Fold this protein.
Amino acid sequence: MEVSRKITNMMGTERDLNFKETELCLGLPGGGGTELETPKATGKRGFSETVDLKLNLQPKEESVKNDSKEKSLQPPCTKDATKPPAKVQVVGWPPVRSYRKNMMAQKNTSHEEGEKPNSSAALVKVSMDGAPYLRKVDLKMYKSYQELSDALAKMFSSFTMGNYGAQGMIDFMNESKLMDLLNSSEYVPTYEDKDGDWMVVGDVPWEMFVDSCKRLRVMKGSEAIGLAPRAMEKCKNRS
Amino acid sequence: MSEDDDRSPPLDLRGADIAESSNKTRNCSGVSGSGVPGPGPGPSSMEFQAPYPDQVLENVLENVLQFLSSRRDRNAASLVCKSWCRVEALTRSELFIGNCYSVSPRRATVRFARVRSVAIKGRPRFADFNLMPPDWGAHFAPWVAAMASAYPWLEKVYLKRMSVTDDDLAVLAESFPSFKELVLVCCDGFGTSGLAIVASKCRQLRVLDLIESEVADDDMDWIACFPENGTTCLESLIFDCVECPINFEALERLVARSPSLKKLRLNRFVSIGQLYRLVVRSPQLTHLGTGSFSAAEGPAQGEPEHDYLSAFAACKSLVCLSGFREILPDYLPAIRPVCANLTSLNFSYANINAEQLKSVVLHCHKLQSFWVLDSICDEGLQAVASTCKDLRELRVFPFDAREDSEGPVSEVGLQAISEGCRKLQSILYFCQHMTNAAVVAMSQNCPELEVFRLCIMGRHRPDPVTGQPMDEGFGAIVRNCKMLTRLAVSGLLTDRAFGYIGKYGKLVRTLSVAFAGDSDMGLKYVLEGCPRLQKLEIRDSPFGDAALRSGLHHYYNMRFLWMSSCRLSPQGCQGIARELPRLVVEVIRDEVAEHKDDAVDILYMYRSLEGPRDDAPRFVTILQ
């Protein structure tokens, strides 16, 4: 299978990447010390919230209950660390349709960065096994794996996703858990990175993923099983 | 689309087909010229083989009723008697379904046999704001399937907030050889593949309008799928919401062979240089969406700087201008030649400031509809107020749609508009805060207001000058604007505001409420006081079961009621369902929020002839 060949190639060649950044060994965001971490795990994470990559039919947002039963979103983390955190926003308020909100958000970014919105789009094709049509997503429209998984779930509504665990990313070091997931008939999102290798989504910090992802493919867990052992090997080999 | 609705409860339509008694003794032969009470002229008579004493009268009626266009008049005519009901059904060519679940496709197509144009509305409006999980329903599929066999001569389809798949579009394209107009507003579920099928198979297509719809990018070059040879019948091509690049060369060729094209609205992937090439080919356009209105991306294309000013100057018929999706303000002066003729201008995607706006709008004396971003500030609105004396509709959208953002527009802008634009009929205004005084002023200065939608983005925000709730402002609106049919309220509001609405808002058909009110009394005032209320959408307000019960006398007259994050219990909703068997009562679980108690997340209820729908997703429970 061509996927395994590519991964073998990758294993055999020198890569002048920053290994620290691309290594697959995962732990809690922020680099806390747990037994699941390898010594090489860095605190370099692009996002501060823990996300659950559960791809449900319903959009899953972190909610804060208060007296008036308002649903709230955690503020999206911005790249600019000097900005004060935004006030918690209520779902669907103010009542502006998301198309318009997205258009304005693009203008905001381009205004600050001095770029045209077009050039900062990161469009990738998304295919799902069994779906008759391709889709395209702009990864820059999302700030986290959670938002991406919500969007994918909406697009391919026959998705069901396995439980990725409390951390945002796949716990490669827990082999049995991973094997359970991959052995099931649940769907797993995978992506082709800059080197042409197929990886399971969720292995690197979000920003890195956006930069390196060339296309997405949602495949059955049982098919993705071919990827996981190589990914784990990649991880071990780097340490 | 007009919003008029019949006020009558739905009929049991099976009665309409029962033949009249043949015991009538009326003698018709003296009345008509033909003298023979047999089948008369017209295709409808073939369906009634039994001899009718009133047959001649029915034929006369048919010839008269076919001129009746208003659906409200038609609804009234259909209630006169069974004969009128039957004839009205045969002569109705435009079918409007305000709620796709209120009647089944089969029932509708059986009653109205000769329909050429269908309009169907689906999802509730609050679904646009992610208040409900996706995939709630409103599928076009069963409708297109029923119509494929019932209306082979169908010409027009208008859908709003429906789920339309590529397969549905394929069925549509293949089933209706005379198909002429497709308008999809706020729809989703389809992609460029579906558009390609419509473009290639609908040879009589005059109108393809995609408005605020979500179109998936299937990498399909749909523009190139229009037939390449000969001229097309295209009069309107609107695709400004399509978020994927198009084949511009194919578009250029298409426009060149569409001599009837009057409306063209491009998406943001069309650069201003490309726009130029289209505009010079089609100076006959009346409606233009300019696309990005900015230079193309990438290295210099080697394009000469076009004479945009002359290109626009040649468009003598242009009355409606929109687009400007990524506007480079340097290009703005190019549209000046058309300003004097413009009746409609949409800058709501253009991040321009007051000065830039003024350079254009001060020439727009005939403007009737104006959509804009609040980036123009109060100063920009003052310029509009001083120039656009004929303004009927104003929409001011927020550039930064958050509660705590800066408020570039305020009561100053609203006051100016009210003083300058006395003919105003419809306003949608987003701001951070507002004073009662400005709202009262508008109620007095603009007596013709029919639609007043004020969105104070800061929740529960009082009048910043007086510290008072916004009750008096909205009270003045319902009291002074005697033609008011649609109202959206915001800011800090007590039950008193709802008291005013119930007391004075006698013509209100649509009411939107968010984060307002103190108690059940608020909702009671409205349900007991507003006899014309059709559509009521409420979120995050303290209204409970008792308030819900106070509308029992009225729910059959309404199109729908939406209440989310209020104080309803399953028992309360169940009670309504039990007492009103023709009401479909949906309790929708928003599974994001975890409940300690048993509260109802979302209640959505509507009258229906069909009972519970069979396509409800698992997060919807229909109470009975």
